[in-house]
Amino acid sequence: MPKRTFRLLAAMCVVAAVVVGVTRARAAGPQYVFYTGLFTVGPNEIAYCYLTIDDQLRAPSARVVLDFLDENSAVLAHREVTVPSGQTGALRTPGPDLMRCRIKVFETATTPLNPGRTMLPSAEVINSVTNGVRPIPMHDSQQIPSRP
């Protein structure tokens, strides 16, 4: 086999391996899921959903999906972001509506999440007229005991 053909075949194998690796990494399920219960956002209010990764600055970034869902779990607002260590990913949507916030944090082959990482989810509603802030409680799905 000529060297040129061999090099081309080797390069194609490398590209195929990278594509398969990226596909598998993106297909991995979320490692962490945070959510709120249903809450009301009025006509003069804006809902915000945040995830801060508060750990060592040299740790890998995380792939995060932030969603606002209605009472039937239909997506009202969606954002997929890469959040570097020490930074915050955010999503906002105006009212009026009845909604909940869901945050999914994904581990990939290039962004491993170890148990020592600290993730701080939060949600709030801000009234655009009065500037009043209403915090919304967040729940960590890993802290809920499984049912038999």
Give me a quick take on this structure.
The chain is α+β, with helices and mostly antiparallel strands and 148 residues long. It is 17% helix and 45% strand. The longest helix is centred in the N-terminal third of the chain and has 25 residues, at 3-27.
Written overview of the protein:
It is a single chain. With 148 residues, the protein is α+β, with helices and mostly antiparallel strands. It has a single domain (30-142), classed as Hypothetical Protein Tm1070, Chain: A. 17% of the residues lie in helices and 45% in strands. The protein contains one helix and ten strands, in the order αββββββββββ. The chain has one helix at residues 3-27; strands at 30-35, 39-41, 45-53, 62-69, 75-83, 88-94, 97-106, 119-127, 133-136, 139-140. The strands form two sheets. Strands 1, 2, 4, 5, 7 and 10 form a six-stranded antiparallel beta sheet that branches. The chain has a four-stranded antiparallel beta sheet with strand order 6-3-8-9, with no helix packed on it. Strand 4 (62-69) and strand 5 (75-83) form a beta hairpin. It is elongated. Mean pLDDT is 79; it is low at 15-26 and 144-148.
